Automatic annotation (TrEMBL), chain A:
InterPro entries: AAA+_ATPase (IPR003593), ABC_transporter-like_ATP-bd (IPR003439), ABC_transporter-like_CS (IPR017871), ABC_transpr_MalK-like (IPR015855), ABC_transpr_MalK/UgpC-like (IPR047641), Mo/tungstate-bd_C_term_dom (IPR008995), NA-bd_OB-fold (IPR012340), P-loop_NTPase (IPR027417). Keywords: ATP-binding, Nucleotide-binding, Transport. It comes from Roseobacter sinensis. The keyword Ribonucleoprotein does not apply. This is ABC transporter ATP-binding protein. SUPFAM superfamilies: MOP-like (SSF50331), P-loop containing nucleoside triphosphate hydrolases (SSF52540). One of its GO terms (molecular function) is ATP binding. Residues 4-234 form the ABC transporter domain. Belongs to the ABC transporter superfamily. Gene3D superfamilies: 2.40.50.100, Nucleic acid-binding proteins (2.40.50.140), P-loop containing nucleotide triphosphate hydrolases (3.40.50.300). The keyword Cytoplasm does not apply.
TrEMBL record, chain B:
It is a multi-pass membrane protein. It comes from Roseobacter sinensis. Pfam families: BPD_transp_1 (PF00528). The keyword Lipoprotein does not apply. Belongs to the binding-protein-dependent transport system permease family. This is Carbohydrate ABC transporter permease.
Length: 347, 279
């Protein structure tokens, strides 16, 4: 079936190295999300898989077949583009059927598959329209239907929802996930929206400056970030960091507090905790509240601990005023440690 | 938008704006139509009326000048030559120019900027300067006095425009559309014929017509490089110089009308090129 293996793929544009030695395996029928900030190389990697870009070095295998020297049409993939790329001179029907007509399928088979995928994406009533007569969300549906109608082994999506409004995005997110699970297709989905990534992915590959920093399930990426970058990138607001100095073995001094931490003779570490894993208590970090934002479901307090920016998500019933000194204690099992030299997590 | 709502909202500025708008339209139409109209009147008038003043407002429908031309020896051949040369120019400049425009818009290659500049530079050499060496070369190669030879020269004149117009047309087609076609089973060629070509056809047509008109209007090279197979412009230049005024008008009219008819026939593609909806 359609297991994707990316082996030692690197890409340079002139002197600029966009991808460094990428190694990634995506299992058959898995929904893999490539997540990362703008410019980190997500689209480049996707386009290399699609065959729209050539890797400088490395190999791409799909379903046990090496495909990096094949043209896009022979790779068994189909792609959904950020700007949908719905052909303006063809009706919705002909758009969805475009790939099937290229395969020279008989007319009734084309009609059957177009109608079926249009049904899946709820656009049966639009089949006669042209792209100019569709809304952004409808165009998006046409683009997905066109990709699905091919019944590909692998479907590649490059930020397909980024041009939609928040409400529609949420709706399409759920729908897309359902349709893809049903179609039993292996999917690679590029986004820079971490909520989208968390909610849709079987696994997330977090990318940073042309490298995959961590590839793991959403909850793993969230709970056990493998590097400082991931910890600071995932989660809104992101993780808090404080410098830690070694005290006794297994004890670390963090902002005047003694914390249990990893043993071993590191010179210094970084202490990390998620804002929602902090509680008000009698002992703990002395935090001076700077900005208080009531967000309805909870209260976001931006404070200063030991001169460092520190955020806490607290119960929305609490009354906190700027300038007030809070005592915050971290939930012990949620504390993480990073090596400032390598930026990697330390167990 | 109706006049009623317009006057409800802001009667003064809207009314002034509208008057100004109509006045500009009338002015521009007059700018183009009046000279052509006078040409028409003078063509359809008897020689006496042409030389008199003031001019009548309505043509007399005296077909004397035109029938004279129709019967004039070599006239129809010249007309035919003009059409042949212009058609060849049209085809050649698109066949050569469009791929160049595509390459310029889609590929990165060393010297791209220089190439674009050089294309424009071909227009920097005035034709009279090139005419003598061209004539000599054409005589040597046997291309002189042939429709094809002249079409080659006209193609050279039209190509810079063909390249630049098609370059901007191709650049206006998002790369994603082509890429989508590739992932849907197209090769570079089928993606071009099934997606790009239908989308730029109106623009290609417009630029083809532009090439046609360049050739149709060109007189210098035509006069120098042809003797027996004269095109209409060269033929009329040769013969009208010494003709009476009414025949000059008729000759001018014969030159203008085909170009007008041609442009009128493809006007919707021209509008499409300028981004005005046509449906
Ligand atoms: N054709 C190209 N020529 C030169 N540099 C390129 C080219 N394509 C991409 N790059 C560079 O490679 C890097 C990665 O680009 P890429 O499009 O993969 O980013 P991305 O992660 O998809 O970002 P975004 O979220 O903004 O789409 C960027 O720094 C970009 O400038
Ligand atoms: Mg991108």
């Amino acid at each position: 079936m359609a297991r994707i293996e990316i082996k030692n793929v690197a890409k340079t544009f002139g002197a600029y190295q966009a991808l460094h030695d990428i190694n990634l395996t995506i299992e058959d029928q898995e929904f893999m999300v490539l997540l990362g900030a703008s410019g980190c190389g997500k689209s480049t990697l996707l386009r290399i898989i699609a065959g729209l870009e050539t890797a400088t070095t490395g190999e791409v295998w799909i379903g046990g077949r090496r495909i990096d020297n094949l043209s896009p049409k022979d790779r068994g993939i189909s792609m959904v583009f950020q700007n949908y790329a719905v052909f303006p001179h063809l009706s919705v029907f002909e758009n969805i059927g475009f790939g099937l007509r290229m395969q020279k399928l008989p007319n009734d088979e084309v009609t059957r598959r177009v109608e079926r995928t249009a049904g899946l994406m709820h656009i049966e009533q639009l089949l006669k329209r042209y792209s100019g007569e569709l809304s952004g969300g409808q165009r998006q549906r046409v683009a997905v239907a066109r990709a699905l109608a091919m019944e590909p082994d692998v479907i590649l999506m490059d930020e397909p929802l980024s041009n939609l409004d928040a409400l529609l995005r949420m709706e399409m997110r759920a729908e897309l996930k359902g349709v893809l699970a049903e179609s039993k297709t292996t999917a690679i989905y590029v986004t820079h929206d971490q909520v989208e990534a968390m909610s849709m992915a079987d696994r997330i590959s977090v990318m940073h400056q042309g490298e995959i920093v961590q590839a793991a399930s959403p909850i793993e990426v969230y709970r056990n970030p493998s590097a400082e970058f991931v910890a600071g990138f995932i989660g809104n607001p992101p993780m808090n960091f404080l410098p830690a100095k070694p005290a006794d073995s297994g004890k670390w001094a963090v902002a005047g507090q003694m914390m249990d931490g990893p043993g071993g003779g590191s010179a210094s570490l970084k202490f990390a905790i998620r804002p929602e894993d902090l509680r008000l208590a009698d002992t703990g970090f002395k935090a001076v509240a700077k900005v208080v934002e009531p967000l309805g479901a909870h209260l976001l307090v931006t404070c200063e601990v030991d001169g460092q920016l520190f955020r806490a998500v607290l119960d929305s019933d609490l009354k906190v005023k700027p300038g007030e000194v809070l005592t915050l204690t971290p939930q012990p099992d949620r504390v993480r440690w990073f090596d400032p030299q390598t930026t990697l997590a330390v167990a | 938008m109706t006049d009623a709502t317009a006057s409800d909202v802001a009667p003064d500025t809207r009314a002034t704006g509208r008057t100004l708008y109509i006045a500009s339209v009338v002015f521009l139409c007059a700018w183009v139509i009046v000279p052509i109209y006078f040409l028409l009147i003078n063509t359809l008038s008897s020689p006496e009326t042409v030389n008199s003043f003031p001019k009548p407002f309505w043509p007399e429908f005296d077909l004397g000048s035109l029938t004279f031309f129709a019967g004039f020896a070599g006239m129809l051949t010249a007309l035919k030559n003009s059409v042949i040369v212009a058609a060849m120019t049209m085809v050649m400049s698109i066949v050569i120019g469009a791929p160049a425009g595509y390459a310029l818009s889609r590929f990165e290659f060393p010297g791209k900027g220089l190439f674009r500049l050089l294309i424009l530079l071909t227009r920097a050499f005035p034709l009279p300067l090139l005419a003598l060496p061209l004539a000599v070369m054409f005589i040597q190669t046997g291309l002189d006095d042939t429709a094809f030879g002249l079409a080659l020269v006209h193609t050279t004149l039209a190509i810079p425009f063909a390249v630049l117009i098609t370059f901007s047309l191709f650049s206006g087609i998002p790369m994603e559309l082509e890429e989508a076609a590739w992932t849907l089973g197209c090769t570079r060629l089928t993606a071009f014929t099934k997606v790009v070509l239908p989308l730029i056809l109106p623009g290609i047509t417009a630029s083809a017509i532009f090439a046609f008109v360049i050739s149709w209007n060109e007189v210098f090279a035509a006069a120098v490089l042809t003797i027996e197979n004269r095109t209409l412009t060269a033929f009329l230049l040769q013969n009208l110089d010494t003709s009476p005024l009414h025949l000059k008008f008729a000759g001018g009219f014969i030159l203008v009308v085909p170009a007008l008819i041609f442009i009128f026939a493809v006007r919707k593609y021209l509008f499409a090129m300028w981004g005005i909806a046509n449906r």
